[in-house]
Amino acid sequence: MSAATALYTREVLALATSLARWPYDDALPLQGSARAPTCGSTVDLNIAIDEAGRITQLGLRARACAIGQAATAIFAENAPGMDAAQLEAAYTEIAQWLAEGNLPGWPGFAAIARAREYPARHGAILLPWRAALVAMDQPR
Predict the structure, then answer these.
(1) What is the Cα–Cα distance from 22 to 11, expressed in whole angstroms?
(2) pLDDT tens digits for 117-134?
(3) Long-range pairs for 97-103 at CB < 8 Å and ≥24 separation?
(4) What is the pTM of this model?
(5) Which one of 31, 37, 87, 95 is least enclosed by Cβ atoms within 10 Å?
(6) 122 vs 68, 72, 130, CA distance in Å?
C-alpha cells in the first residue's frame, strides 16, 4: 500500500466531499481565515453566534488537501454549540496530539489519525480551529 493510499482513505475522501453541507455564506456576520505556511492550504469561514457566544451557524470554504478538507468537515460537524473557550481548548488538544500522539477528544479524529505521521499535513489539520478563533475574536 502506498503512503498516499494509506493516508487518503475512502473515509477521508468522503469527509472531504461532505464540505458541501456547509457552503460559505457571506450573510453570516463573523469571518475568519487561516493559512498553513508549510503547504499553502487555506480555510475561510463565517459564523453566527448566539448571545452566549456559541456557534449557531457556519459556512466554510477550504482550499486544502483532502486531509485539510476532512479536518474541516470534522470541525464543522461538531462546532455548533461551542464557544471560543471550547474551541481554544480543542485547538490546544489537537496541537498536542500532532506533537505527542494522544488522539484528541474532538469527535471524528480517528478518521485522520494517520495524518499525524505526515508533518506537512499538520498545519492543514489545524486550519478550521484557527479560522474560527479569528472569527470569534471579532467585535460583535
Answers:
(1) 18
(2) 999 999 999 999 999 999
(3) 98/122, 98/125, 98/126
(4) 0.94
(5) 37
(6) 9, 13, 12
| C-alpha to C-alpha distance for 57 and 110, rounded to whole angstroms | 25
The label of the residue with cell 479569528 reads 134
Scanning the chain, the segments in alpha helix (DSSP H) are 3-7, 10-17, 66-78, 84-100, 122-136
Q: How far is CA 62 from CA 52, 67, 88, in A?
A: 27, 11, 20
Q: What is the pLDDT of residues 63-96, one digit of tens each?
A: 999 999 999 999 999 999 999 999 999 999 999 9
Angle at 24 (CA atoms; ends 115, 83), nearest 5 degrees: 70
